[in-house]
TrEMBL record:
Subcellular localization(s) per the UniProt record: Cell membrane
Gene Ontology annotations for the cellular component aspect, listed alphabetically: plasma membrane
Protein's name in the database: Ectoine/hydroxyectoine ABC transporter ATP-binding protein EhuA
Gene source species: Streptomyces pluripotens
Membrane protein topology class: Peripheral membrane protein
Family: Belongs to the ABC transporter superfamily.
Keyword Nucleotide-binding (UniProt): yes
Annotated GO MF terms: ABC-type amino acid transporter activity; ATP binding; ATP hydrolysis activity
Length: 274
């Protein structure tokens, strides 16, 4: 039912026996675009409630990872697991696996919210409608209930007075706050943040990062975050993964990665961006 608590710890009915217990697991994931291998047998896991930051040079595959999780792209090989379900397959009638249906993907997608670099608000809808659209049409929440929740979220993101505004009447920072509220309105278990401050004017960046810090520190939502904001990454991360050419070259606590990285490549990257 739509109002189920999003963080309820139950075993999903369509979980596959023997599936990993991690909330997210990439298992030898390969992603190719034509003959360009962007991710090369990538393995990593994210635990429930963990905040993971993906750092590394442009073109190293970070955004592709978020897009695969959001099912905006399909893997070329390997398996992505979300809460015990493979993204590419689902349990078949004989106990084996069959290719994932759209319905299976939709069910998994409900667990995941994404905030994009370019906000991607619906331009023809006001702020309130942007936030309530998916809860009403996808989760089948009553409109009045969705609006009440949307107003709470607008309060949280500091835009209580903008419910009736259209996206074009808002600054970039305000639009991104609405996009964050819209993602949270779906009560996601996992929030994907893809360079959410890169398109903002510099003076608007700190406010959005402070909001995300607050969300990270006051909710149980699992976060996967691609960012070039290293201080932010240091503040919110349980785990930092350093990517290069579609591989994790090292991962660890922010203290380890920012303070004493093992790899020369990580040191070079950090000295270029810090
Ligand atoms: P990052 O987020 O680390 O900057 P991306 O995941 O955006 O890296 O991109 C990794 C590589 O994949 C880049 O070389 C990019 O050009 C390529 N790529 C990403 N999406 C596509 C696509 N839809 N078609 C072709 N190449 C793509």
């Amino acid at each position: 039912m739509a109002t189920d608590h999003p963080l309820e710890k139950t075993t999903p009915a369509d979980a596959v026996p023997g599936a990993p217990a991690d909330l997210v697991r990439f298992d030898r994931v390969v992603k190719r675009f034509g003959d360009h291998t962007v991710l090369d047998r990538l393995d990593f896991a994210v635990q429930r409630g963990e905040h993971v930051t993906l750092i590394g040079p442009s073109g190293s595959g970070k955004t592709t990872i978020l897009r695969l999780l959001m099912t905006l792209e399909r893997v070329s090989d390997g398996v992505i697991w979300v809460d015990g379900r493979p993204l590419s397959h689902m349990p078949g009638p004989d106990g084996g696996l069959k290719p994932a249906s759209e319905k299976h993907l939709r069910e998994i997608r409900k667990k995941i919210g994404m905030v994009f670099q370019q906000f991607n608000l619906f331009p023809n809808m006001n702020v309130l409608r942007n936030i309530t659209e998916a809860p009403v049409s996808v989760l089948k929440v009553e409109r009045a209930e969705a609006e009440e929740r949307a107003r709470e979220l607008l309060e949280l993101v500091g835009l209580a007075d903008k419910a009736g505004a259209h996206p074009t009447q808002l600054s970039g920072g305000q639009q991104q706050r609405v996009a964050i509220a819209r993602a949270l309105a779906m009560r996601p278990e996992i929030l994907l943040l893809d360079e959410v401050t890169s398109a903002l004017d510099p003076e608007l960046v700190a406010g959005v990062l402070d909001l995300l810090r607050e969300i990270a520190h006051t909710t149980d939502i699992t976060m996967l975050c691609v960012t070039h904001e290293m201080n932010f990454a240091r503040d919110i991360s349980d785990q930092v993964m350093m990517f290069d050419s579609g591989k994790v070259i090292e991962s660890g606590s922010p203290e380890k990665i920012f303070g004493d990285p093992d790899h020369e490549r990580t040191r070079a990257f950090l000295s270029a961006v810090l």
